[in-house]
Design a protein that fits this description.
Blueprint: H1 2-29, E1 47-51, E2 63-68, E3 72-74, H2 77-80, E4 82-84, E5 92-96, E6 99-103, E7 113-119, E8 122-124, E9 134-139, E10 147-155, E11 162-163, E12 166-170, H3 177-180, E13 185-188, E14 194-200, E15 206-210, E16 226-228, E17 237-247, E18 253-264, E19 269-273, E20 283-290, E21 293-298, E22 307-310, E23 319-323, E24 329-334, H4 337-341, E25 344-354, E26 360-370, H5 375-383, E27 397-399, E28 404-405, E29 411-415, E30 420-421, E31 427-433, E32 436-440, E33 444-446, E34 453-456, E35 465-470, E36 475-477, E37 482-483, E38 487-493, E39 500-506, E40 513-518, E41 524-529, E42 534-540, E43 543-551, E44 573-575, E45 580-582, E46 587-592, E47 611-612
Parallel strand pairs: 10-19, 11-47, 28-38, 39-46
Antiparallel strand pairs: 1-2, 2-6, 3-8, 4-7, 5-6, 7-9, 10-14, 12-13, 12-15, 15-16, 17-18, 20-21, 21-24, 22-25, 23-24, 25-26, 27-29, 29-34, 30-36, 31-32, 31-35, 33-34, 35-38, 36-37, 39-42, 40-41, 40-43, 43-44, 43-45
């Protein structure tokens, strides 16, 4: 019995010691309010072996296997992994455990260096640490090519870096190579616009950038953005040494380590990305929301108007043809009552269309256009009771008037359809003088040829209060038989003290400069041609603005894009390298030599925004 009691006491002591030990262990392992671990893993995956070796020669098998020191995954491999030379059928790239495997679907070419550029697609499975700028190469011949060309791709209009564009080189330096042959070697621009075309053999090359919408590594669609240089490049490499000195103490040298390094020429290429003005031309759709008008929509502006061949009506000369601001939409206003009353207008449309060879040909479409009202209008009409009168309809009117009106502006009023003024007496403009309102003379001028926009210019008195009234039915629309509602607006004119003035002194004035003032979104606020070396912008609102200019080579006062066939580069764009603070009642004067600051350093960083070429739509 005593022996049993001793046995239980021994077991109890052991259990107590075990419990205490466990508690101590838990306390040591869990200090603070949550679980505590070691330092965060920030080390990217490391290559420990590969088949074949990186840089191997005489490799003819269509497979590559790379082994890492931890489990890896591929992040967006389809977009990031680039195989060079470009493949007809994309190589299969996948991660399995600690291995990345590449299987070529095309037959390997003899005596060719292959590069698999992973960019930063390889990451570890746990923390997502990226293996940055990793590439693998091998040769099917006795020699592996090692030369390189590098640079940056920027948007020609905004100077923003462009990512995800194909960068390719051709040893065939003829103009037709870009449109008929695949690149010899390719790369892709990274988020900073930087690129490196690796493992090049020594030869003479031309370099291009391409937003390859068709995936064939050719410039064969006019919608594809491109960049090119007429300059040819011969890539070379130079070896040089650097010394690292190790010191025993502050005065005694221990050893001098000599490092062998290689620098590659053709390492600062600047490519300017643009889309040609010429695009594939095609018809999108037609619509007829009102009996007295229909619209034809195209993907791009037409050089010539399409031909309308009526089927169930007679075409009248009494039709107004209106182009949209972009020139890609044509609206036909039907002043002929028979055409208005035709339920469905049927006609053959003759228009230019780009064929598969990129040539403009005459296309014919048969269209039937019934009146299709907006769904919202149709629902409202259907819900109205039979005995309920429809609400009075008026022509929509918009004006540019604001409570605080600019001293240099004219009043502008816009309408959604052609209108005419019934009487000048139905417009009233008055100025407040003390407690009285004095009537002012009005001169109404048409802004367009359709009677859809009008302006009233007046020499405003600073800090004065005005009111503008339009009587009911002052404007009538002959097509819809509607008229305007009453309109009244009271406004106060700003003073010159409310504005800032910006004076730009161009130090390298040529007479071709077109200056643009921009806001933080790069919206053009003002544009002015430099007729002399000093350019003055007046009546500017206080705040922050930015400045750029382009060289208007053709004198059309518009920025002109490039054209590959004629070897024309886009008109050169330059940015003033800092933001400009505008203060009310202050003159800000800046001297500007737009060639002094290197182009890549010109654009202020707060408006520098990378552009993804893949975001560009067809």
């Amino acid at each position: 019995m005593k022996s049993s009691i001793k046995h239980f006491r021994f077991v109890g002591r052991c259990m107590l010691l075990a419990t205490v030990a466990a508690a101590i262990a838990i306390g040591c392992a869990n200090r603070g309010g949550g679980p505590q671990g070691g330092p965060k893993d920030e080390t990217p995956p490391r290559v420990i072996s590969s088949k074949p070796d990186n840089g191997a020669v005489n490799h003819h098998k269509p497979n590559v296997e790379i082994v890492f020191d931890e489990i890896v995954v591929l992040n967006n491999a389809f977009e990031k992994v680039v195989v060079s030379p470009p493949q007809n059928q994309a190589a299969e790239v996948k991660a399995i455990g600690r291995k990345v495997k590449v299987a070529f679907q095309d037959s390997l070419q003899p005596n060719t260096t292959y590069t698999i550029d992973f960019s930063d697609a390889i990451v570890d499975n746990n923390e997502g640490n990226k293996l940055v700028d990793y590439s693998f190469s091998f040769s099917t011949g006795d020699v592996i090519d090692t030369l390189m060309m590098s640079g940056i791709l920027i948007d020609a209009y905004t100077l923003n870096p462009v990512s995800n564009a194909i960068i390719g080189i051709h040893s065939d330096v003829s103009d037709t190579a870009f449109t008929t042959k695949k690149f010899d070697r390719i790369s892709k621009s990274n988020p900073d616009g930087l690129f490196r075309v690796k493992n090049i053999k020594q030869d003479t090359y031309r370099i291009f950038a391409l937003n390859d919408l068709s995936g064939d590594f050719l410039f064969d669609q006019s919608d594809e953005a491109i960049a090119f240089l007429d300059t040819t490049f011969v890539p070379t490499a130079e070896n040089f040494t650097t010394n690292d000195t190790l010191w025993k103490d502050s005065v005694t040298i221990d050893t001098v380590k000599v490092n062998m390094r290689t620098t590659y020429k053709s390492d600062s290429i600047v490519l300017k990305f643009f889309k040609e003005k010429t695009q594939r031309q095609y018809f999108i759709r037609a619509e007829r929301k009102l009996p007295y008008k229909f619209s034809l929509m195209f993907n791009a502006p037409l050089d010539t108007l399409p031909l309308i061949q009526p089927i169930n009506f007679e075409w009248s000369d009494n039709v107004l043809t209106q182009k949209s601001l972009q020139g890609d939409t044509l609206t036909y206003w039907l002043k002929d009552s028979l055409m208005m009353r035709t339920d469905t207008l049927a006609f053959v449309l003759h228009y230019p269309k780009t064929d598969l060879q990129g040539q403009l040909v005459n296309e014919l479409d048969t269209l039937e256009l019934p009146v299709r009202r907006d769904r919202k209008s149709a629902v409202t009409t259907s819900k109205r009771k039979k005995d309920e009168k429809p609400p009075m309809e008026f022509i929509e009117l918009k004006s540019n008037l604001t409570n605080s009106f600019d001293v240099y502006k004219a009043i502008q009023i816009d309408f959604v359809e052609p209108v005419r003024l019934q009487s000048d007496t139905m417009l009233v403009l008055e100025q407040q003088v003390d407690t009285l309102w004095n009537a002012l003379p009005i001169k109404l001028d048409s802004v367009d040829e359709f009677g859809m926009a009008y302006k009233i210019a007046h020499e405003w008195k600073e800090d004065a209060t005005y009111r503008f009234n339009i009587d009911s039915a002052a404007f009538v629309a002959p097509l819809s038989n509607l008229h305007t509602n009453k309109f009244a607006y009271t406004f106060k004119v700003k003073t010159k003290e409310d504005y800032a003035t910006l004076i730009i002194d161009l130090e390298n004035f040529t007479g071709k400069e077109m200056l643009q003032l921009l806001d933080a979104t790069e919206k053009v606020l003002r544009e002015k041609k430099a007729d002399e070396s000093t350019v003055k912008f007046e009546y500017l609102n206080p705040g922050v603005c930015y400045l750029r200019l382009y060289i208007d080579e053709n004198g059309d006062e518009e920025w002109t894009t490039g054209d590959y066939k004629t070897h024309r580069q886009p008109e050169a764009m330059y940015y003033f390298p800092k933001k400009i603070e505008l203060r009310a009642y202050w003159d800000v004067e800046e001297a500007w030599n737009y060639l002094a600051t290197p182009l890549l350093q010109q654009k202020p960083t707060d408006i520098r925004k990378p552009i993804d070429a893949k975001a560009q739509k067809k």
